[in-house]
Every structure is written in C-alpha cells, then in structure tokens.
Amino acid sequence: MKVEELEEYKKDLKKLSKKYKTLPEDMKVVQKVLFVNANERPPFSFRIDNLRLETCVIKVKKIASRSFKGRGVQSGFRLIYAHFKTEDRIVLIELYHKSNKDTEDKERILKNFI
User: Fold this and answer.
1) Contact 84/91 with Cβ under 8 angstroms?
2) Into how many domains does the chain fold?
3) Which of 44, 50, 60, 88 has its CA at a distance of 20 to 30 angstroms from the CA of residue 32?
4) For residue 36, pLDDT beyond 90
C-alpha cells in the first residue's frame, strides 16, 4: 500500500502540530491502521457520498491523540482520504479539528480528483 499526502494536508498537519505536539506520531499510527484495512469502518470512518468521483473518499471521525489525555478517540480530529483500491494507494487529503471546522472541504477533494 502506497500513501501519498497532498500539499494542503501537509500544511494542515504542520499547523495543527504546533498546538498538538503528538499529532505527527498519532497520524503515523493512523496510517498503519489504514495499511491493514483502508476501507470505511463505521462508527470510526464513513464514505463521503455525492461527490460523483470514481474513487472512494473516506472520512475518519475518531482519531485518538496523546495530546488529549483521557479523552481517547473523542479527541475531535478528522481525516479525509481517498482510497484507490485498484492501484493499492491512499491519498491523504485533509486533516482538521472538529472545533475549527464543521465539515470537510469538498472543493479541495473535487479539485484534486476530477
């Protein structure tokens, strides 16, 4: 499985890492989980529908972070990624905290995959 990161995702991670110091290591753990099974797994992750894309775009809602001691998966981080099953590839699109943003940036998704 190959993992790629959009430049926007890298900027999101860098910005959030200033406040949440353990986030880069936490995201490495998330990537290891995606290596094992990149498909959606409710209640932790869901497919984003109505994008009219051929690929599967998934939103991970429950990401544990050591920056939030005692709160576990209720930390509030969201990860958006595209899973290309035939190419055995994942593209990390967006990372945000739920208190800063209500929903994923559909324009970013469509801009990079249409």
Assistant:
1) yes
2) 1
3) 50
4) no
Q: Give 63-100 pLDDT, tens digit per residue.
A: 878 877 656 555 678 999 999 888 889 999 999 988 88
Place of tokens 């200033």: 18
Find the CATH number of the domain harbouring 99: 3.30.2310.20
> Could you give the CA distance from residue 19 to residue 33 in angstroms, rounded to a whole number?
24
Pairing of strands 77-84, 89-97: antiparallel
The model carries a pTM of: 0.88
* Whole-number Å distance between alpha carbons of 33 and 31: 5
Closest of 88, 87, 62 to residue 74, by C-alpha? 62
Residue type, 89: R
Q: For residue 50, what is the DSSP state?
A: S
